[in-house]
Amino acid sequence: MRKLITLLAIIILFSACKKTENTTVTNSSEIKNDSISADHSASEVISNSGSLLDLFTKKKDEIVLKLKSISAEEANVLYEKYHEENGYLLHKIDEKEDRLLQNFYSEKEADKKEIKSLNDKLLKHQLQFDELGEGIVEITTKPDFYYTLFKNYVTRDYKEYLFMQSEENKQPYSADAGLIISFKDLGDRVVSWENFMNKYPNSKLMKSVKEDYKMYQLDYLIGEDNTPTYERAADEKYIYPENIEEFNRFLKKYPNSPTVPLIHTFMENFKNENIAEMLRAAQDKL
What we know:
Mean pLDDT: 85
Helix content: 55-70%
Strand content: 5-15%
Oligomer: single chain
């Protein structure tokens, strides 16, 4: 999933000048209003691109220190802030390495050597390449980066959320406009997030969880462009036998799942050209 970089994130990350490195976070409002300390102004970071990887690790080390002196609720807030700010920093690293990322699949020996050298550097900072498909490659954190960093400090819902994310990130589910995991595995992911929402109905993570959950549901039901669940030709629409088999498995194994009525809606209306809109409307009623 491509990183969402907004102007707000830029302002939050670099609005402050040099801050004391060993600042102690004492409450949630302080975490919200105080940017993670750094010895770099916006202009310094952007112009001195060679320092970006070191800055990434420096910020991580600052987080490690802060986590030792704050409550679980404050650690939740710190995670949210740190995750957002890392998004901007990783975006700047992507920009710096744009030429290599564009040539990631190059057969030229010089490019291969540079890419290997960059990969070695990334690994030292707990970063890696993320192949998104269609020739797009980004730099991202290791799958369990946030879970390892925050698991002993955040509340139980955040810990479970970060664990589930880390496990799913080990095997991305989609690339090149198609699923790269089975529909069975995707269906099981849907149920895992349903269980999470039932377990933590008041979690502050609910909004983002629901967004990903709905995306999983739709991809499970109708598939993606290169891995559809049904033949879409105007004169011969039908659900593929393997998907009917999978839907029946799901219905039998998870009869109480909120996804069950959506499966029935899809199977009864898949020939309707507005089936995606019908399913989205049904999701909004859940």
